[in-house]
Amino acid sequence: YGLRRRTSTKNLWRLDYLKIRDKVKMIEGDLGDLSSLERAVEKSNPDEVYNLAAQSYVATSWKQPIYTAEITGLGVLRMLEAIRHVNPKIKFYQASSSEMFGKVQEIPQKETTPFHPRSPYGVSKVFGYWITVNYRESFDIFACNGILFNHESPLRGTEFVTKKITQGVARIKKGLQDHIELGNLNSKRDWGFAGDYVEAMWLMLQQEEAEDYVIALNEQHSVREFVEMAAPYFGYDIEWFGEGEDELGIDKKTKKTIVRVDSKYYRPSEVDTLLGDSTKARKELGWKPKISFKDLVEDMCKNGK
Questions:
Q1: 8 Å CB contact between 214 and 111
Q2: pLDDT band (50, 70, 90) for residue 222
Q3: Dist. CA 173–CA 235, nearest whole Å
Q4: Cα atoms in the Cβ-side hemisphere of radius 13 Å centred on 278
């Protein structure tokens, strides 16, 4: 079963891409409405609930901080309340985020690293994390947090930088756009393949006891490196000129500008570096990522819509 909000248009293309649309029964509901979540839980009668829903755009969270808190934060509480009211034996997975670490207190970040979120989105995710822990300890609900570092695939939305890069360079190659506009090229992230991370989610709910786990590739790359790895797939070789807000990424052969830096894409408070340590998950869950960073970038370039 899948939960979806009532909207004027259906946005189910990812299910079509995965060829599973006929295998997923959709139920209308909203993380802002507890009664709709209770009805959804009653109707589906699940063994496991995976709460992957959120207002998930970090940039939007500054423009809509209250809505972000309602859905990304309090939405977790409403989902937990629905489970507690209908069937507290249901296992619950909460999609926590590496953005909770924000201004990192140690490198790499693991399950015991203190949180210091740097956006309304990150703050809301911290609330979701702790309310999940609280319901586990207060009501003996099997509830766990997966603190997932950036996970990508060809299904990624165009609002996210990885898809913006891979789709943008493809469109430049086809003559459909002139260049890509990006923000901080030096931001570093730990990027992995979403399919591997979903397996980790499932493994968490198969354990004897509910615990929280960091899921990461355990390696770090900058936005600049992502561009440099994606560009050759389309025949470009990038060299950089200028710095900061005046920096350009230009193809060495054609001298065509591929990347322009625009300050409007900088965050009010930047998260400069995120690097995960998934030792606990690898040891206790037996989890190991199958797709490398290089293969992930190539897959997004090859199969991106």
A1: yes
A2: very high
A3: 8
A4: 28
**What are the structure tokens assigned to 270, written together?**
């930047």
Q: Show the beta-strand stretches assigned E in 39-166.
A: 48-51, 91-97, 143-148, 151-152
Q: How far apart are the first and last CA of the chain?
A: 25
Helix (H, G, I), strand (E, B) or coil at 3: strand
Q: Smallest Cα–Cα separation from 68: which of 4, 122, 136, 149?
A: 122
Measured torsion, CA atoms of residues 205, 210, 212, 215, in degrees rounded to the nearest 10: -20
**DSSP E strand boundaries for 170-247:** 180-182, 188-189, 192-193, 213-215, 221-222, 238-241
- Tokens linked to 255: 């001298």
pLDDT of residue 9: 77
φ/ψ of residue 152, rounded to 5? -125, 165
Q: Can you give the pTM of this predicted structure? A: 0.94
CA 3 vs. chain centroid, Å, equals 18
Cβ-contact 217, 190 below 8 angstroms: yes
Find, among 150, 54, 134, 59, the residue nearest to 99 by Cα: 150
CA distance 237 to 258: 10
Both tokens of 298, joined, read 């190539």
State the pLDDT at residue 305.
54
DSSP 3-state assignment of 220? coil
- Cα torsion 89, 122, 216, 228 to 10°: value is 150
Q: Shortest CA distance to 214 belongs to which of 129, 271, 157?
A: 129
Stretch among 1-10, 47-56, 185-194 having the lowest mean pLDDT: 1-10
Give the helix/strand (H/E) hosting 279: helix 279-284
- The Cα–Cα gap between 293 and 299 comes to 10
